[in-house]
């Protein structure tokens, strides 16, 4: 179980760190990338748009650190945009450089769906600054130096107790995020930081370490995240969260997905579970997993997994209703 939560927390943090940028694509239009201004009056929408353009066009390799629960891991990340495919394909390869030799691999086509909107992975097809302002206080903060590059910091402070805060430090020359923090009550739960960054695309390697344990993230059809109409429902959601699609896992479990535009929460319905299965709350960094038998049907259990406080996951779990 510990490895599962480790991978889940790290992947979800990297999703926020990288794929968060992709959900902003509808704001991009035909804008060409320009360097981020140092003017403190720079509009938040313009800054976010520049981040999207950067992540859309840059291939790079980076060394980074990931901190959570008092531990520090060093990783290598390759992010490659393939322009030769019919649709731009994004290839990501994450290698753990200390501890057990592990790799996480992801390849995904980036497609435009109906109306020119884009879905990539589980992220929404539209980023609405006005909408998020209802649930986060978004402000542009200080300048800092990270990985020998100048960065500008933007904060997402939660307006309620049911979500975490986020802080992104953005490279002023490229628009890439160099540091990402998850924060609760001024406590840093997770920190991901670029240590070095290279745009020499010819140096990007096709990693083929056969001794490593690799996990390939399944490709998601960008325009069709809802695979079936689930008879299960979640009676309570934090304000601002909405359904993001339903899927069946490889084990045949139903998975219901929800998002507020930054954070995603997954609710798994586990059928035929042991009636003696205890209630479990497990943490890894900012990611929590709450597993509990259903009070009205002990033969089924629910698991709520997401980058949210435990109070949120528990309240969602007890609100799950059967067909």
From TrEMBL:
Domain MucB/RseB C-terminal positions: 229-321
Lineage top rank: taxon: Bacteria
Domain named MucB/RseB N-terminal: residues: 45-203
Localization: Periplasm
Keyword field contains ATP-binding: no
Main location: periplasm
GO MF annotation terms: antisigma factor binding
Keywords in alphabetical order: Periplasm, Signal
A single Gene Ontology CC term: outer membrane-bounded periplasmic space
Key word Signal present: yes
GO biological-process terms attached to the record: regulation of polysaccharide biosynthetic process
Family listed: Belongs to the RseB family.
Name the record gives this protein: Transcriptional regulator
């Amino acid at each position: 179980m510990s490895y599962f939560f480790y991978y889940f927390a790290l992947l979800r943090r990297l999703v926020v760190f990288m794929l968060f940028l992709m959900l902003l694509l509808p704001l991009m239009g035909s804008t060409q990338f320009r360097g981020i201004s140092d003017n403190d009056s720079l509009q938040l929408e313009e800054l976010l748009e520049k981040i999207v353009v950067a992540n859309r066009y840059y291939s790079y390799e980076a060394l980074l650190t990931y901190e959570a629960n008092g531990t520090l891991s060093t990783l290598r990340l390759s992010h490659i945009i393939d322009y030769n495919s019919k649709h731009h394909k994004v290839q990501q390869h994450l290698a753990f450089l200390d501890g057990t030799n592990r790799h996480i691999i992801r390849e995904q086509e980036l497609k435009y769906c109906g109306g020119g909107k884009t879905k990539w992975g589980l992220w929404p097809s539209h980023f609405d600054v006005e909408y998020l302002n209802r649930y986060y206080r978004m402000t542009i903060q200080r300048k800092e130096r990270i990985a020998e590059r100048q960065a500008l910091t933007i904060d997402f402070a939660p307006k309620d107790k049911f979500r975490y805060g986020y802080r992104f430090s953005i490279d002023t020359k490229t628009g890439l995020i160099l540091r990402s923090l998850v924060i609760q009550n001024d406590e840093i739960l997770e920190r991901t930081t670029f240590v070095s960054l290279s745009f020499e695309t010819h140096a990007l390697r096709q990693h083929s370490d056969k001794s490593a344990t690799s996990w390939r993230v399944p490709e998601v059809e960008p325009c069709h995240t809802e695979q079936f109409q689930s008879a299960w429902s979640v009676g309570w959601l934090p304000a601002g969260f909405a359904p993001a699609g339903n899927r069946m896992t490889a084990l045949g479990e139903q998975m219901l997905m929800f998002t507020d535009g930054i954070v995603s929460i997954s609710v798994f319905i586990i059928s035929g579970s042991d009636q003696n299965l205890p209630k479990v709350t497990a943490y890894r960094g900012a990611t929590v997993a709450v597993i509990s038998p259903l009070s009205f049907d002990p033969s089924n259990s629910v698991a709520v997994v997401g980058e949210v406080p435990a109070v949120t996951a528990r309240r969602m779990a007890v609100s799950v209703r059967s067909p």
